[in-house]
Write a structure and sequence with these properties.
42% of the residues lie in helices and 14% in strands. By secondary structure, the protein is an alpha+beta fold. The strands form two sheets. The protein has a two-stranded antiparallel sheet with strand order 1-4. The chain has a two-stranded antiparallel sheet with strand order 2-3. The two termini are 27 Å apart.
């Protein structure tokens, strides 16, 4: 989702239009594959140099946050905050006017392709 939150300021319609017009070599990489990409680039362009890793593991929080949803009869169901946000994200974006109306569909389509691609790397080509 990190890409999605940066859409209004980074991957705007003007950026997608420029990609389509100029056809640059662009590669989107899932964060989990950055070490693999760095190793490949180092072995290709800097043979004999070892990659240095910093912050290799993401910090995991042991805290779990939940929301209790109550039905009309006062019964409650606990749902994790992350699951609730994922389910309501588009509604929240619309209600708070966060989307910026900036070609978000193209970015979400790219994110979907990236998440299902086994290598977690995706080269973007101009639309014809």
């Amino acid at each position: 989702q990190e890409i999605g939150f940066s859409v209004p300021t980074q991957l705007t319609c003007a950026v997608w239009d420029e990609i389509n017009e100029t056809g640059p070599n662009i590669l989107f990489v899932h964060f989990s594959q950055l070490d693999t990409l760095q190793d490949h680039l180092a072995s290709t362009y800097c043979p004999g140099v070892q990659s240095e890793r910093q912050n290799a593991a993401a910090a995991e929080s042991s805290k779990k946050y939940v929301i209790r949803l109550k039905d009309g009869k006062g019964r409650g169901e606990d749902i994790s905050l992350n699951d609730w946000i994922d389910a309501k994200l588009q509604t929240i974006e619309f209600a708070l006017k966060l989307s910026g109306g900036s070609c978000k569909y193209k970015t979400r389509k790219m994110e979907d392709y990236l998440s299902f691609c086994p290598s977690k790397m995706l080269q973007v080509f101009p639309e014809k």
